[in-house]
Design a protein that fits this description.
Blueprint lengths: L14 E4 L9 E3 L7 E3 L1 E5 L5 E4 L5 H8 L1
Antiparallel strand pairs: 1-4, 2-3, 4-5
The structure holds zinc ion.
Length: 69
């Protein structure tokens, strides 16, 4: 959905991107013990069928690899 702008489940194009935010309500993955290690998760939601997928920004991939590999 991020790249095609089309929902792979229903073919819809009514999509929204929900920004991952580093706060108490945000969608993040912790790569350490403090809030400073939080990596935001970007969500793409199809407003036709409700399907969603999650992506990490490219700038955080090395940080995730180091933490979990
Ligand atoms: Zn859909």
């Amino acid at each position: 959905m991020k790249n095609t702008h089309i929902c792979p489940k229903c073919g819809g194009s009514d999509l929204v991107r929900i920004e991952g935010k580093v706060n108490q309500y945000g969608n993040v993955v912790l790569t350490g013990v403090t809030v400073f290690s939080a990596v935001p998760v970007q969500r793409y939601v199809c407003c036709s069928c409700g399907f969603s997928e999650e992506w990490f920004d490219e700038e955080h991939l090395d940080q995730l690899r180091s933490a979990f590999q």
